[in-house]
C-alpha cells in the first residue's frame, strides 16, 4: 500500500498541466490555477483519498505520457502523413518501419494521434502544410534523442521560394519554417523548444535562435521560441530533403511541423493595421462618455480622464496612437514602435496593463490621432471630459503658476543699517552712538533716548550701568535712580543690555 502510494505520487509529479487538470476534474476537484498549485492539489488528493479508482486514473495518465510498447508508438502516428520520424539507429527493423512509413501507411490506424494546433503568428502567413504537427518519439532511454523527417518540395513550391523577394540580404519573403511545440490537444499551442535542441538539414546544421541575455540578477536567460527558417539548406528541386532534430528527452512530449510560409515585416503589419483597424473619432467619444457616465451606485463621480501623449514604450510623443480593444484603459502606445519591438522579440503584451495584446485586437485611436495633430509638441497630457470633448493639461498648470505668482506679496528689501530706509534709526546702529553730524538722529553717551524724525522715541540699547551712573550726574537725581540703588540689578543678556528696553513708535 505504501509503495503504491509513493509510486502514484511520483507519477503525479511528472504530469503536465493538462494531465493534472484531467486528473483533478475526474475526481471533482478544481482544475484552475498555476502548475505549482495543481501539483500540490493533486498530491493532497492522492494522500487523502487514495483508492483503486484514483490509482487507475493516475496510471492511465502516466502511461499515456510514457508508453512502453512499440505497438502503441506506431498507433500514435497519424494516418496519411507522407513524412516519417525514425531514430538514427542501425537496427534493420527500425529502418524498415521508417521506410514503410515514408511511403505511406496503406492500412488504417485505429487510434490516431491527438490533433495539435499551433497558434497563428502575425509575422507568418501559412501557405501550405508540408508536415502536420507530429510527435517526437523517444526510441530508447537516452536523454539525447535524434528524430528524422523527410519531405519533398513540389515544382510550384520551389518556384515560389526562388521568385520570392528578399526582405534583407539572404532572407526571402517565402520560407520553409520548422515549428516545435508541446504535444497537447487542448487549445492552441505556442512555439516551445525542447532542451538541447539542434536542427540539421541535409547534413548541415541550421541556425536556431539563441537565448536573450538577462539584465536582472538571478533571472535565467530566455530563448525566443519562434519558427526556424530552414530554407537556405533545402534542395529546391525534386530531391528529397532530410531534417534531423536533436532534442533532450526529459519527460515532456514535443511535436514538430513544417510549413511553407510568407513572412511579413513590421511595416507590412502596420500597413494592414492602418487599412483594416482604425476606430473612428465618434466611436472613441462614445467610449469616453460611457466611462464618464454618472453611476448612481458609485460614491465618487468622475468628471474627467487624463491621458498622456507620451508613449510608455519609448518615452516619446505618440506618432500613431494604438491600443487593444479588450483593454479597459484609454491610454495608447505607439503602433510603429510596438510592431518593431515584437518583430525582434515577440511578446505581444500591452505595455500599459501587461495583458495579452494580439495583433488581431490592435486598433488605432482616431480621436487621439486628431488631438495629436491639433496640439503642439510641448503638450504632454490631455483630459477627456464627460461630453466627449478634451482640454490640454498644460494651460491649467500655467494658470496655476500665474495665480501663485499674483497672490504672493512682494516685500521690499530694507537695509537696516541706513536710518532713512524705514523712517527711523535702528537702536543698535553704531551711528546712533557716535552722534556725528549728517548721520541722522543720534543719542549722546549721557542721554538714554532721542526723538526720531517720525516722532517716535528711540531707546539706546547700548547703554550699560556705567553709562547710566555717568548720565545721572549730568541730569540730576531722580526717583528711578534712587529706586534702582535699593533694588537688585536687572538681569542682562548675552549682549549686555536690558531685555525690557524696546523701541517705541
Automatic annotation (TrEMBL):
InterPro entries: PINIT, PINIT_sf, SAP_dom, SAP_dom_sf, Znf_MIZ, Znf_RING/FYVE/PHD. It catalyses: S-ubiquitinyl-[E2 ubiquitin-conjugating enzyme]-L-cysteine + [acceptor protein]-L-lysine = [E2 ubiquitin-conjugating enzyme]-L-cysteine + N(6)-ubiquitinyl-[acceptor protein]-L-lysine. It is an enzyme of class 2 (transferase). Residues 395-407, 495-505 have a biased composition (Basic and acidic residues). The keyword GTP-binding does not apply. Its EC number is 2.3.2.27. Residues 395-414, 422-505 are annotated as: Disordered. One of its GO terms (biological process) is regulation of transcription by RNA polymerase II. Residues 445-459 have a biased composition (Low complexity). Gene3D superfamilies: PINIT domain (2.60.120.780), SAP domain (1.10.720.30), Zinc/RING finger domain, C3HC4 (zinc finger) (3.30.40.10). Residues 12-46 form the SAP domain. Pfam families: PINIT (PF14324), SAP (PF02037), zf-MIZ (PF02891). Residues 104-264 form the PINIT domain. Pathway: Protein modification; protein sumoylation. One of its GO terms (molecular function) is zinc ion binding. Residues 466-486 have a biased composition (Acidic residues). SMART domains: SAP. Keywords: DNA-binding, Isopeptide bond, Metal-binding, Nucleus, Transcription, Transcription regulation, Transferase, Ubl conjugation, Ubl conjugation pathway, Zinc, Zinc-finger. It comes from the Eukaryota. Residues 296-381 form the SP-RING-type domain. One of its GO terms (cellular component) is nucleus. SUPFAM superfamilies: SAP domain. PROSITE patterns: PINIT, SAP, ZF_SP_RING. It is found in: Nucleus. Belongs to the PIAS family. This is RING-type E3 ubiquitin transferase. It comes from Tetraodon nigroviridis (Spotted green pufferfish). The lineage of its organism: Eukaryota, Metazoa, Chordata, Craniata, Vertebrata.
Amino acid at each position: 500500500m505504501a509503495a503504491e502510494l509513493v509510486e502514484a505520487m511520483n507519477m503525479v509529479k511528472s504530469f503536465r498541466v493538462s494531465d493534472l487538470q484531467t486528473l483533478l476534474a475526474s475526481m471533482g476537484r478544481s482544475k484552475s490555477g498555476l502548475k505549482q498549485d495543481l501539483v500540490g492539489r493533486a498530491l493532497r488528493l492522492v494522500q487523502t483519498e487514495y483508492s483503486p479508482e484514483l490509482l487507475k486514473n493516475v496510471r492511465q495518465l502516466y502511461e499515456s505520457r510514457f508508453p512502453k510498447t512499440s505497438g502503441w508508438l506506431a498507433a500514435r502516428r497519424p494516418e496519411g502523413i507522407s513524412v516519417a520520424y525514425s531514430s538514427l539507429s542501425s537496427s534493420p527493423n527500425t529502418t524498415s518501419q521508417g521506410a514503410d512509413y515514408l511511403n505511406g501507411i496503406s492500412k488504417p490506424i485505429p487510434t490516431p494521434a491527438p490533433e495539435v494546433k499551433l497558434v497563428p503568428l502575425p509575422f507568418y502567413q501559412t501557405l501550405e502544410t508540408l508536415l502536420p504537427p507530429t510527435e517526437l518519439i523517444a526510441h530508447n532511454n537516452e536523454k539525447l534523442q535524434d528524430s528524422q523527417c523527410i519531405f519533398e518540395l513540389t515544382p510550384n513550391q520551389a518556384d515560389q521560394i526562388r521568385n520570392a523577394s528578399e526582405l534583407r540580404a539572404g532572407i526571402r519573403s517565402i520560407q520553409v519554417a520548422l515549428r516545435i511545440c508541446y504535444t497537447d490537444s487542448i487549445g492552441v499551442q505556442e512555439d516551445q523548444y525542447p532542451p538541447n535542441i539542434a536542427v540539421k538539414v541535409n547534413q548541415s546544421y541550421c541556425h536556431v535562435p539563441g537565448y536573450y541575455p538577462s539584465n536582472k540578477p538571478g533571472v535565467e536567460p530566455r530563448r525566443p521560441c519562434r519558427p526556424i527558417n530552414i530554407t537556405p539548406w533545402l534542395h529546391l528541386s525534386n530531391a528529397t530533403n532530410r531534417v534531423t532534430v536533436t532534442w533532450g528527452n526529459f519527460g515532456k512530449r514535443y511535436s514538430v511541423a513544417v510549413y511553407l510560409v510568407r513572412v511579413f515585416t513590421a511595416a507590412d503589419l502596420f500597413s494592414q493595421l492602418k487599412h483594416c483597424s482604425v476606430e473612428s473619432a465618434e466611436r472613441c467619444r462614445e467610449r469616453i462618455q460611457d466611462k464618464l457616465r454618472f453611476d448612481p451606485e458609485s460614491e465618487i463621480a468622475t468628471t474627467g480622464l487624463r491621458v498622456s501623449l507620451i508613449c510608455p514604450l519609448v518615452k516619446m510623443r505618440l506618432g500613431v496612437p494604438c491600443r487593444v480593444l479588450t483593454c479597459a484603459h484609454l491610454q495608447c502606445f505607439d503602433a510603429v514602435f510596438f510592431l518593431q519591438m515584437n518583430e525582434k522579440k515577440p511578446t505581444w503584451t500591452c505595455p500599459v496593463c501587461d495583458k495579452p495584446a494580439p495583433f488581431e485586437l490592435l486598433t488605432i485611436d482616431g480621436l487621439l490621432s486628431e488631438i495629436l495633430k491639433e496640439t503642439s509638441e510641448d503638450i504632454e497630457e490631455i483630459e477627456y471630459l464627460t461630453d466627449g470633448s478634451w482640454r490640454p493639461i498644460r494651460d491649467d498648470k500655467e494658470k496655476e503658476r500665474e495665480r501663485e505668482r499674483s497672490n504672493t506679496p512682494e516685500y521690499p528689501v530694507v537695509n537696516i543699517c541706513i536710518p532713512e530706509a524705514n523712517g527711523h534709526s535702528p537702536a543698535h546702529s553704531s551711528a546712533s552712538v557716535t552722534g556725528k553730524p549728517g548721520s541722522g538722529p543720534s543719542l549722546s553717551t549721557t542721554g538714554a533716548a532721542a526723538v526720531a524724525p517720525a516722532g517716535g522715541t528711540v531707546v539706546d540699547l547700548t547703554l550699560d550701568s556705567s553709562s547710566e551712573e555717568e548720565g545721572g550726574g549730568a541730569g540730576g537725581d531722580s526717583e528711578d535712580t534712587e529706586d534702582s540703588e535699593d533694588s537688585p540689578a536687572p538681569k542682562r543678556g548675552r549682549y549686555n543690555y536690558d531685555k525690557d528696553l524696546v523701541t517705541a513708535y
